[in-house]
């Protein structure tokens, strides 16, 4: 029945497309006959007006002669309007019909070569219920999402789903998954560190205040958590506190086991830090970073600061972010930019508010004051 229905549907669609080409083209002849009939009606009306005395004999004869000339002109042109182009018109019709018929013919032939008509239907519900070992990543992910939608209190499920989102680059979904795991089963070092990393992904590489808070909570549970330590070092570097960042990364490069991926990451980050020297032995990434010139390293740091500045323009209510930006401009010896950042920070909060007063006091300690 399926193949019969498919064949009928294909035939109907092809016929609908070919219908304009199958009609007989009699438009020009019919148009000529209509014009002649109109002129004859005009002649009859002319005779009636002459009989009623509305036109004299001379005017009637002139009008009758003019209409007669028009009728003769149409009758002479009628035969020549049919034959010319008839062969061309027929050729166009044949080509058009062949093109229309070739579409289903080529499609069906291609399906016969590469199609699988014997393959059974695979609705989504059935695919989600099949053996996990035979399911694709998308099917497994959908199955996990459906399960957690019905069982949102399963913290292990959120712990499993979060890293998958993280590897797929779905940072916002990963952050939500880790947060739900924390809300359901409580805060742990791994959950908080994973949440912070997801938030760094959401911030496009910038360690935001929210992410730094998550890493800080992770270190409260486990002071040696390498992921939290590494990103806290990155936060310090983005603030312009290279000494603090170098201290954190140097300690990681010295203390962590050689098999730890975080040791390699810390050594590479330490080598790319302006003025920093690694004491944990060279690595491939560190050696490459050592080849950077002072100008290149300075450009890298300024890029981090510019990224933070752009983030604060989009989200000016981040008091911690403004502290980082002001400190970064002070470290980079850009006092005018630091003053401008302070003015924008104060404008983001109400005058006399706790946030504005705290920012003013913080800037004053760094020797920055508002010009307003």
TrEMBL record:
<feature type="coiled-coil region">
    <location>
        <begin position="29"/>
        <end position="63"/>
    </location>
</feature>
<keyword id="KW-0201">Cytochrome c-type biogenesis</keyword>
<keyword id="KW-0677">Repeat</keyword>
<dbReference type="InterPro" id="IPR051263">
    <property type="entry name" value="C-type_cytochrome_biogenesis"/>
</dbReference>
<dbReference type="InterPro" id="IPR019734">
    <property type="entry name" value="TPR_rpt"/>
</dbReference>
<feature type="repeat" description="TPR">
    <location>
        <begin position="155"/>
        <end position="188"/>
    </location>
</feature>
<keyword id="KW-0175">Coiled coil</keyword>
<feature type="domain" description="Cytochrome c-type biogenesis protein H TPR">
    <location>
        <begin position="147"/>
        <end position="261"/>
    </location>
</feature>
<protein>
    <recommendedName>
        <fullName>Cytochrome c-type biogenesis protein H TPR domain-containing protein</fullName>
    </recommendedName>
</protein>
<keyword id="KW-0802">TPR repeat</keyword>
<dbReference type="Pfam" id="PF23914">
    <property type="entry name" value="TPR_CcmH_CycH"/>
</dbReference>
<dbReference type="InterPro" id="IPR011990">
    <property type="entry name" value="TPR-like_helical_dom_sf"/>
</dbReference>
<dbReference type="InterPro" id="IPR017560">
    <property type="entry name" value="Cyt_c_biogenesis_CcmI"/>
</dbReference>
<dbReference type="InterPro" id="IPR056413">
    <property type="entry name" value="TPR_CcmH_CycH"/>
</dbReference>
């Amino acid at each position: 029945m399926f193949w019969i229905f498919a064949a009928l549907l294909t035939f109907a669609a092809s016929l609908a497309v070919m219908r304009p080409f199958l009609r007989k083209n009699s438009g020009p002849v019919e148009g000529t006959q209509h014009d002649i009939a109109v002129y004859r009606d005009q002649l009859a009306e002319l005779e009636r007006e002459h009989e009623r005395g509305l036109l004299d004999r001379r005017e009637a004869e002139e009008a009758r002669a003019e209409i007669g000339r028009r009728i003769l002109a149409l009758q002479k042109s009628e035969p020549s309007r049919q034959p010319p182009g008839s062969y061309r018109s027929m050729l166009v019709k044949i080509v058009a019909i062949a093109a229309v018929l070739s579409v289903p013919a080529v499609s069906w032939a291609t399906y016969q070569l590469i199609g699988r008509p014997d393959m059974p239907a695979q609705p989504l519900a059935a695919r989600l219920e099949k053996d996990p070992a035979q399911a694709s990543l998308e099917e497994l992910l959908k199955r996990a999402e459906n399960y957690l939608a019905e069982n949102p209190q399963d913290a292990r499920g959120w712990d499993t789903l979060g890293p998958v989102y993280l590897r797929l680059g779905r940072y916002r979904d990963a952050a939500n998954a880790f947060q739900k795991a924390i809300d359901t089963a409580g805060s742990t070092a791994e959950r908080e560190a994973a949440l912070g990393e997801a938030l760094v992904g959401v911030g496009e590489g910038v360690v935001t205040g929210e992410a730094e808070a998550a890493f800080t909570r992770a270190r409260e549970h486990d002071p040696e958590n390498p992921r939290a330590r590494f990103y806290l070092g990155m936060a310090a570097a983005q603030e312009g506190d290279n000494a603090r960042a170098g201290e954190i990364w140097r300690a990681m490069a010295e203390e962590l086991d050689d098999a730890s991926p975080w040791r390699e990451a810390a050594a590479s980050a330490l080598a790319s830090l302006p003025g920093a020297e690694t004491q944990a032995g060279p690595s491939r990434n560190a050696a490459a970073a050592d080849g950077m010139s002072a100008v290149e390293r300075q450009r890298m740091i300024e890029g981090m600061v510019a990224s933070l500045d752009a983030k604060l323009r989009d989200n000016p209510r981040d008091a911690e972010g403004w502290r980082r930006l002001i400190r970064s401009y002070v470290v980079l010896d850009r006092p005018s930019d630091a003053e401008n950042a302070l003015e924008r920070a104060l404008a983001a909060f109400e005058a006399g508010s706790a946030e504005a007063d705290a920012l003013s006091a913080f800037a004053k300690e760094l020797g920055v004051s508002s010009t307003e």
